Amino acid sequence: MSSSQPGLALQMLESIGMDPQHAFGDDVARIEVHANQVIGVKLVPGLQVEADETADGIQAAIRVEAGAQIAQPVHVCFGIIPEDGLQLVDLDIHIEEQAQVSILAHCTFPNAKQVEHRMEAAIRVDAGASYQYFERHVHGPHGGVQVIPNARIVLQENAVFSTEFELIKGRAGKIAFDYQAECRDRSLLEMTARISGRDDDVIAIRECADLVGAEARAVLISHIALRDKASADIYNRIVASGDHARGHVDCKEIVVGNAVAKATPIVEVRNATAHVTHEAAIGSVDSKQLQTLLSRGLDEDTATGLIIEGLLSKQT
Questions:
Q1: Which of 94, 228, 231, 257 measures 20 to 30 Å from 161, CA to CA?
Q2: Residue range 150-172: mean pLDDT, rounded
């Protein structure tokens, strides 16, 4: 399956800072969706996509065939270029046994004043399969976007699933996650969110991992920075019932000005051999770090920005 509408696709790529002339090689699969239009599709062996346009978005089934090793990250771009619009995305994702794939997804709403993007995803990662999903968001300066993704995830034995959400440009607007995962024997789940909010942005994250399998593992990481009157409510929950299951919750929030932050880390152990830990910290920027930067000639706003940038940077 291959299709394209070059004008919109070019605008979307340009909005995320990609050079349309040199964006992809011939071995890179990609899917581009503007509002409710599938405007570009290119597949590679082992990857199957069936997509139907609806009145307000798309319904798509994405399947990676058993044993397929997709060498290059699959590029997926969802977006709305005008100032207003609605995009409803319904995804059924199935990574079959021993398959491996990574997806680099950009969601771009560069001019948003009244845009709503909703996603409902069912994700199955079969035995021994690996699925990495890196989600990068570009929003406009007005805060006029609502991003509301929900995902239900099932990891079979020895499966690996990692996801990262990062706002790389613009105001957060309203972001509300609800991700729930069931992790079976020796599976690994990693979920990371890095978001900065300002003005009256609202951020709500709800992530739950049920470690039902023996030696199942999960890590939930939320790093949030808030300024002005922005608010965040972070709920991370890990329940460990499998033998020797392991989990960790890491929630850090920085508040500046009149921002409001809330963190609810829930760890529940139902098996004497399981072990779950949590770390939650909410407060202003670290005074020692701030004084160090001020002593080097930076003003307070610049120093605060650097500390926040460090919190939101990807840890290696």
A1: 231
A2: 97
DSSP annotation of 150 reads E
Does an H or E element contain 312, and which? helix 300-312
Backbone angles phi, psi at 215, to 5 degrees: 60, 20
Beta carbons of 104 and 136 less than 8 angstroms apart: yes
Greater confidence (298 vs 189) lies with: 189
Cα separation, 165 vs 38, whole angstroms: 23
List residues bridging with 209 in a β-sheet.
181, 238
On whether the CB atoms of residues 264 and 232 are closer than 8 A, the answer is no
* Three-class SS state of 298: coil
Contact 125, 161 (CB under 8 A): yes
In the structure encoding, which two tokens stand for residue 225, read together? Answer: 């920075």
Q: What is the pLDDT of residues 42-60, one digit of tens each?
A: 999 999 999 999 999 999 9
**126 in helix, strand or coil?**
coil
Distance in angstroms (rounded) separating the CA atoms of residues 161 and 217? 11
What pLDDT is recorded for position 313? 79
pLDDT at 4 (0 to 100): 46
pLDDT at residue 102 above 80?
yes
Task: Identify whether the C-beta of residue 141 lies closer than 8 Å to the C-beta of residue 111.
Answer: no
Is the confidence at residue 289, as pLDDT, over 90?
no
SS3 12: helix
